[in-house]
Amino acid sequence: MQLPVSSPVADPADEAFWDAIRAQFTAAPDFINLENGYFGIQPDPVLAAFTRWTAEANAETARFLRLRFPPLLEQVMAGLAAFTGAGTDELLITRNATESMNILAQGYPFRPGDEMLLGSHDYDLFPPIFELLAERKGIVLKQVEIPLDPQSDDEILACYERAMTPRSRVLLATHMIHLTGQVLPVAKLSALARARGMDVFADAAHSFAHLDFRVPDLGADFAAINLHKWLGAPLGTGLMYIRRERLGEIEPLFADGTFPKGDIRRLGHFGTTPPAAILAVQDALAFHTGIGSRNKEARLRWLKDYWMDRVACIPGVSLVTPRDPSRSCAIGAFRIARWEANKIADHLYDKYRIFSVGRPLRGGDCVRITPHLYTRPDELDRLVEAIAEMAG
Known about the structure:
Layout: H1 15-22, E1 32-33, H2 44-60, H3 62-84, E2 91-94, H4 97-107, E3 115-119, H5 127-137, E4 140-144, H6 153-163, E5 168-174, H7 186-195, E6 199-203, E7 222-226, E8 238-242, H8 275-279, H9 281-291, H10 293-311, E9 317-319, E10 332-336, H11 341-352, E11 354-355, E12 357-359, E13 366-369, H12 377-391
Helix pairs in contact: 2-3, 10-12
């Protein structure tokens, strides 16, 4: 199937439409994968492009990288700029969001005593970045407790506002919490921080190409993004965003003598880089655009609601993902009384061939469920059956 450049509004429950999309994915046939939050499967056209670029680069070696790759990279960057709403001079392709956050954090002009505000459910690998900076630069880390199921944006904003002091310098704002899928009001947090003279590092690793938004909409001057999660680009592709006016303030993590200060490419001197994954990003963008961001978001939310609606009333089962449609999308998490999360995940796989993951969470662990566009409703029926059996 050749996807159109853009799709009309699609019913998230129209299985005929989504069957056509599902046919463009080749998933392992021997288990049901409901752990798509780690990294996303490449749609078949993206995998084909990745394979083709790998073969061409391997055959041509230096000629490919020296002559063909630079103009091809410009096309990729133009596509990312059009999709994100940012300028090509504000974007840098990295290997993942963790690398992006390291470049931002370690290059930021922190002063001794500056306060860094972290959320209680930020991605596991991000707090150690700032713990290292606390040792090296003397910054002070403050953790903000975030409610699992807030009643309003104001409730979340108040949590951060109470933690702010005149020494507060930077706030790490997670757009979509990786553990529970909760969506935080990052644009409002950015406005609050700006009013207090603070900067925001936005973590859009899970929200990018999952929710329908443009990067500048977040209101943050700095953002770390993954392309290999919900966009479906090859594994090992991420993105970093710095608002144009702030480019000169981030010092490079890697030495570079090629680009002038203020050029974002100066921050990405990684040496010889495999080109195939980067070039296939344009195919991932084309596939995503063919479906439509709003259609994709609506379908992913529908899949999450499909199974959560059915287990919400089962005695002994508790949901730790907000049910408000504006506060979650594909990612959902649950607990079962008297079961450890890892034991649940093991049982789901051993008996039902459902792959999921147990994760630590304040107040007890949880099992994270992340369907994808190739997930069928009958596979989620299997999940519901399994949860009911374990809770019984």
